[in-house]
Design brief:
alpha/beta; Nitrilase/N-carbamoyl-D-aminoacid amidohydrolase; Rossmann fold; 2 domains; 6-stranded mixed beta sheet
Length: about 650
């Protein structure tokens, strides 16, 4: 395990019904390949040793003896391998025949887990051959040369590095009370499912929804393996399904209906799951209830089966799972459009409620021709349309200053005109010049005083106009700027409602592009696309001699796509800078070097800590995603916390 990642595999081996020698050979090959790829735990389909579709052959002692012999061979195989293998086999326990998962490591059986829920409807009739775990009293059996206890009690397996996993078999997850509920609440962080799911119209999508929801509900990783080509097609077909889910998100899957065996490998982020569970107080309460005896009130101890340490713990670890460089929005265009529409609805409903509550029919907004004010203006217009208010109640104020370029100025005017709002232009150059003169600050000194004087002058104008017209000042600052403190305290930092407070910069670009691509107004679309192509800048220092933007935000604080990546993993999952750096190297391997990522990550952590005082007194604004910096909601941090321990060497 490295940085909390555990490499797992779900295998779909070649199979011949009742041919245990052939099946053993296929399973063996996949175990060896997986171990060579650094897999720590691998799972196979239900009854993979014999084949699931043996029917009444399960009553034949020959088949049961050969299955036991195959397990013995697998035990011998694993003596020199650094891998835990979970295979399916029929096993006798006294007078009962059980459908079991067998956990094998380093030549030993760590545990045998019997299936609880036996389907006996439709095409399934497992009760014809097997007994349920609920029919079983704790029984010690001699199997594959080893004395081992078989029980219906929940079994939690724990690796030498402390990772806990549990096992359920096929129908167990389809039941109203899945076995994995108990396993997860008893500490299992990864659930392995050995299955034999046949293919029916619509069943595949239902299965994926089921597994996704179970993984999310139990805040666990869910590794699923179901038998495929080679099983009997006498009445049904098995398409071969293999999935790896992590807290509801699919991170790997096999090809359905493949005629070849398959092995899917991915990494489960156990550290992330632990963070989620610690954060989710509902999970903590349920966990306590599950571990407390209802009659006595005493804690119930769960059986913990210790796995052996790895032979070669220093084996090189590499990630195979994809790390999304832009975690705040999906890569799929269809889902992205749905996400954009949903975010707009959240922002619009938030502003609509505030306007109705205050009986306010005028909104004052500073429009600069930049990304943030553009999105805020679009939200404002959509809100007025939803409330059936005249757009003339929106007062867009453009306030050119020392650094305003023709490009942003003209885009601001064009956008306000096309949206049909009320407009006003107030040049701040003279008032700021007078202010700097009053405080005896040189106009030629383009320092932080020079910059912030402009930001505060603009905020003062907007606030005074809101008083004059009985309106509300709409904030335009976004989540990324709040994280970095890239706003002027009591300047653009302040408003009466901040509609963009929960939206990161990378997502704002997609929201603006979404409107540009869906509007029927050609000039509005052209203007929005040009806003997107304009360098991000507060335009507080003079432009170049050619009239181009000289003060570019991303040159000063770093690329926003990196900072949004840092923000997501720092805030959402509580990862260390070292792990964030590790993930960023995979996500941006073709774009940024390790040195560049490390430099801007250090900048992020330093600024994040130092600028908390601005976030401690933020205006109200709607949360739109899982990451928020509201001091009243998700993020409560002392303004004088020290960032020393979060720095990278």
């Amino acid at each position: 395990m490295k940085y909390g990642f555990v490499k797992v595999a779900s295998a779909i081996p070649a199979v011949k019904v009742a041919d245990t020698k052939f099946n053993l050979d296929a399973i063996t090959k996949q175990i060896v390949v997986a171990e060579g790829q650094g897999v720590e735990i691998i799972t196979f389909p239900e009854l993979c040793i014999t084949g699931y579709t043996c029917q009444d052959l399960f009553r034949q002692q020959v088949l049961l003896d050969h299955a036991e012999h195959s397990i013995l061979m697998l035990m011998d195989l694993t003596r020199q391998l650094d891998i835990i293998a979970i295979v399916g086999a029929p096993i006798c326990a006294g007078s009962l025949l059980l459908n079991c998962a067998v956990v094998i490591q380093q030549g030993k059986i760590l545990g045998i887990v019997p299936k609880t829920y036996l389907p006996n409807y439709g095409e399934f009739y497992e009760k014809r051959w097997f007994a349920s775990a609920r029919d079983l009293s704790p029984t010690e059996i001699y199997f594959a040369g080893q004395h081992i206890k078989v029980t219906s009690e929940p079994q939690i397996f724990q690796t030498a590095e402390g990772v806990k996993f549990g096992i359920e078999i096929c129908e167990d997850v389809w039941s109203p009370t899945p076995t994995s509920n108990v396993l997860a609440l008893s500490g299992a962080e990864i659930i392995f499912n050995l299955s034999a799911t046949d293919e029916l119209i619509g069943k595949h999508n239902y299965l994926k929804q089921l597994l996704s929801q179970q993984s999310a509900r139990t805040i666990s990783a869910y590794v699923y393996s179901s038998c495929g080509f080679g099983e009997s097609t006498q009445d049904v077909v098995y398409g071969g399904n293999a999935f790896v889910y992590e807290n509801g998100t699919l991170i790997a899957e096999a090809e359905r209906f493949s005629l070849d065996d398959q092995l899917i490998v991915s990494e489960v982020d156990v550290e992330r799951l632990r963070t989620e569970r610690r954060t989710n107080t509902t999970f903590t309460i349920a966990q306590k209830e599950m571990s407390t005896d209802a009659t006595t009130g005493k804690l119930v101890a769960r059986q913990i089966i210790k796995c052996q340490p790895l032979n070669n713990p220093e084996t090189a670890f590499t990630l195979t799972r994809k790390i999304n460089p832009h975690p705040f929005f999906p890569a799929d265009n269809t889902r992205r459009a749905e996400r954009c529409e949903e975010i707009f609805n959240i922002q619009v409903c938030g502003l609509a409620k505030r306007l109705m509550h205050t009986h306010c029919k005028t909104v004052v907004i500073g429009v600069s021709g930049g990304l943030d004010s553009t999105l805020a203006l679009l939200v404002c217009v959509k809100t007025f349309d939803k409330l059936k208010l005249d757009r003339k109640g929106i007062l867009g104020v453009t306030m050119p200053g020392f650094g305003t370029t023709d490009r942003t100025y003209n885009n601001a005017l064009s956008l306000m005109r096309e949206l049909g709002i009320n407009t006003m232009e107030i040049n701040i150059a003279a008032s700021v010049t007078q202010h700097l003169k009053d405080i005896e600050h040189s106009i030629g000194s383009h320092d932080v005083t020079y910059e912030n004087a402009q930001a505060r002058e603009r905020t003062q104008i907007l606030m005074d106009l809101s008083n004059k017209y009985g309106g509300m000042v709409l904030g335009t600052g976004d989540l990324s700027e709040l994280a970095l403190g890239w706003c002027t305290y009591n300047g653009d930092h302040m408003s009466m409602y901040g509609v963009n407070a929960g939206v990161p910069k990378t997502l704002i670009k997609h929201l603006v592009r979404y409107v540009a691509e869906t509007t029927d107004n050609a000039e509005e679309s052209r203007c929005l696309l040009d806003v997107l192509n304009t360098p991000i800048s507060p335009e507080l220092t003079p432009a170049t001699a050619e009239g181009e933007i000289q003060q570019k935000t991303e040159d000063l604080v770093g690329p926003y796509e990196l900072h949004d990546f840092f923000l997501y993993y720092f805030l959402r999952h509580g990862f260390s800078p070292a792990k964030i750096l590790y993930l960023a190297q995979y996500a941006f391997e073709d774009k940024y070097s390790e040195e560049v990522i490390k430099h801007w990550l250090n900048t992020f952590t330093r600024r994040f800590f130092n600028q908390q005082f601005k976030r401690s007194c933020l205006p109200d604004g709607p949360k739109v995603g899982t990451v928020s910096l509201s001091p009243r909601g998700d993020w409560r941090m002392p303004s004088d916390a020290v960032s020393v321990d979060w720095g990278l060497e």
